[in-house]
Amino acid sequence: MRVPGEPALRALIAALHDDLAAREITDADLAAERAAILASWNAPLRTAASCSPHLLPACRHLDAAMAAGRNHPIVSAIAPFLPTLSWRYGYPEHPEWPGLAERLAFAPLIGARAIFTDVAAHLGLTLVAPETHYPLHAHPAIELYLVLSGTAEWRVSGAPFTLQPPGALILHAGGIGHAMRTGAEPLLALYVWRGDLATAPVYVAEDAGPGGAGRASAASN
Ligand SMILES: [Fe+2]
């Protein structure tokens, strides 16, 4: 399958950069992360010659999530990539939350094994089926999420769930546990990873603090 080229990627990066640049951000950590992302991907990225699209069961909700977010410029910019995405779920079975492989899916666009390669910052999509608890997990990478569609509950270790609507920015410091919980709508969100891009996320024990104490299992994505 032919891969959308650099122009399509540039349109996506521009949509993200425009969104971030237009925001009033007062939190110092979030402002620093925005500045780092605005400085990312300014050089040409290596493009995969071909790709092997792969769907997971959670992708049955992708059309609804895309339709719900269709007015967001980033959603429009990711649309050309949808036929080429390789959706993955790499965690082992969670001891308390079975069946997550049917309900969660992740698609890298810029990553180690993605359509485009970069060593400083990765970018991709997270899809969560309705009525799903994506339990606490952690990774050393710094993560910025931008919600594209679906209002879901989000929390970090030691804090309660709060509703995050489309357009919300959520910053996860490296090593801190974080979780999402969907209701009737699927959740589609864009993630950006920086820092340690080689270490996979792991499920952590409920309310494990920063550093990921109580790690239960490792994922391959
Ligand atoms: Fe994460």
TrEMBL record:
Pfam (any one): DMSP_lyase
Keyword Lyase in record: yes
Ribonucleoprotein is among the record's keywords: no
Record SUPFAM superfamilies: RmlC-like cupins
InterPro entries according to UniProt: DMSP_lyase, RmlC-like_jellyroll, RmlC_Cupin_sf
Any GO molecular function: lyase activity
Full protein name: Dimethylsulfonioproprionate lyase family protein
Organism: Paracraurococcus lichenis
